[in-house]
Structure prediction request, 764 residues.
Amino acid sequence: MSWKTNLFLGAALLGATVASAEARDLTVTSWGGNYQDAQREVYFAPFSKKTGTKVVDDSWNGGVGALRAKVEGGNADWDVVQVEAEELALGCEEGLFEQMDWSALGGKDKFIPAAVHECGVGAIVWTTLITYDGARLKEGPKSWADFWNTEKFPGKRGLRRGPKYTLEFALMADGVEPSQVYQTLGTDAGIDRAFKKLDQIKSSMVWWEAGAQPQQLLASGEVAMTSAYNARIAAANKSDNRDFRIVWPGGVYAVDSWVILRDSPNKEAGMDLIAFMSDPVNQKNLPPKVPYGVTNKEATALVDPAVLPIMPTEPGNLAAGLELNTDFWVANIERLTERFNAWVGQ
Amino acid sequence: MTAPTVPRDSSLQASSGGLKAELRRTQRRRKLEAVALVAPLFLFLAVFFLAPIAAMLFRSLDNSELPSAMPRTAEVLRAWDGAGLPPEPVFATFASELAAGQKARNLAGVAKRLTYELPNMRSALFATARALPEQPDGTWQKTLTGANAVWGEPATWAVMRRAAAPFTPLYLLAAVDREMDANGNIVSVAPDRAIYVDIFIRTFWIAIVVTVVCLFLGYPLAYKLASLPPRIANLLMILVLLPFWTSILVRTGAWVVLLQREGPINETLQTLGLITEPLQLVYNRVGVYVAMVHILLPFMILPLYSVMKGISPAYVRAATSLGATPFTAFRRVYLPQTVPGIGAGGLLVFILGVGYYITPALVGGAGDQMVSYFVAFFTNQTINWGMAAALGSVLLVATLVLYWIYAKLVGVDGMKMG
Prediction:
């Protein structure tokens, strides 16, 4: 607020930096909220107990820029990070990550193909989709066209701030078949079409940034419907006794991966942790708490069958959705983020 | 006659010279004392405040990405006249440093810098680096253009040449929605990318509205506080100071809870039957104004109070006894005496308001974000520190200009901080 506060913060940060130059605990960074609570319970704490390695966890909201700053600034204070698909591709190309030791993970063929990368191993399969509160809306939306229909379903709408997912959803709302979405986005006319469709609901939008926000927006009645991550909605239903509903058709699914930041002082311990989290015996414990898809082929068979219908990897759910096109976003994320920011701020 | 006067004069001069020297010595000692007293604070400010700000402002001109990763390419690009396509040695130098950069994995900075001017350069650079052969296929120009067509376009090399310069106006221009075209002329950016001029206007407008509202709410309150007996006034002052001491994050969070769709305010209004549908009070401009006014109000009340405390009630009494109506007495006698308080409070609230970040970020919508939001966005998320520094510099300069106008109109002396 005032420069005095900044100065104090600066001094505190300086102290923190000096301290972190010493050996520090293994730090794993994920996406916060009830998802990370579950990861702590299923992965971090049992790993600590088994190996005696202390694990500290931090959370972030994504962006390859944040990783660039950590690695290129030297003295990165994160070791293991869960990244989205295009962050994995961009960061690997730029040399922000260590190479993955696939022999320690039991070989590439143990995992689903989308989970295999030279710099990372898949952590989860997750879907971003329409959600609404069943306690408030008896007859809910069934598609992105319904999401855009503010006459039939009055109230605000929530979407994640940024062009990724938002443009795909807009095109589907405009009647583009899921299989044609990226072909359409590949042209300038297609991108203009998506932004034009977004103009229609701009005044009804509440943009969220952290994955824990959409549940809060739904719970407080601030929005009538919002995009959200499937498992967080399921976990909120369970822990807070909510009746949030999920609309699988039109959801966009992707794989998140674990990486180790370049020159991490805890590289070996980090690799041990990733191996622990990739072990089917441990992976099977995650979906009952947060029903994301698992990446180790053997884990799928071990997961409690009762959870399967609400997982993204259930064949019907998979067929109803659209796979995020990483190549498109690797090539276009910066240009479209600039355009999106100008559009949203106007 | 003259003879005796000379020694007298000289002796006088000598003694007065001694006095002068003495005086100079004392003055010098005083100066040293003053410097010694101020020095620790000055050094502290210089190291922890002025130097970081100067360094940050300098970043808005920084152009070191390409020169640091490809020093020889930068050198030959600077020597090139910039017409059409560069000569073969430039292509050859670039190709060799591209291959070395790919091996050392230090191309990310160059890619980032080029992308700011040509969005597809990131993928073009990495694709070319991956496909680069050891030996040229004929010329390097042909080889590079064969690997990716962008290397055959003069526009690419115009950007490369600008990226090789020691400094760049790119960020400062972008902060006012301007850019350089292929010929180096300064032009407005396309309307779908123009945003910052609007954001600056919005930032100053929000700060002005908040300042005016604070003045209208704070002035009567400060007047009441100043005219009450000290015992009660002190008690009431605690009520002003208590929120002032509370964390800004807590207060902003509390406003979200109060103002939300199903929050206490909307529910009360609905229960009273004043509204049928909940009002939209948060995630829009209303929420920003409400929360910012609440948080900045003490900065208005405190200087006003301290100025009003010093105004003797005798003046207004004298004015009314001479026949002035209460309104005239207020307008012509009381109000002018409180101008220093209004000036100080207004300036404090305005300058704090211009830099607000966390409150609009939490209670505002996408269209209510102020410049600081974008400074934070570029600092933390996209790590485009040049752009963050440029926005900060423009904000600083605009604020200083406004302060200068204020000082010309009102005068810095006509201000009392309390």
Summary: Strands of chain B lie at 178-180, 186-188. Residues 244 and 279 of chain B are 28 Å apart (CA to CA). The longest strand of chain B covers residues 178-180.
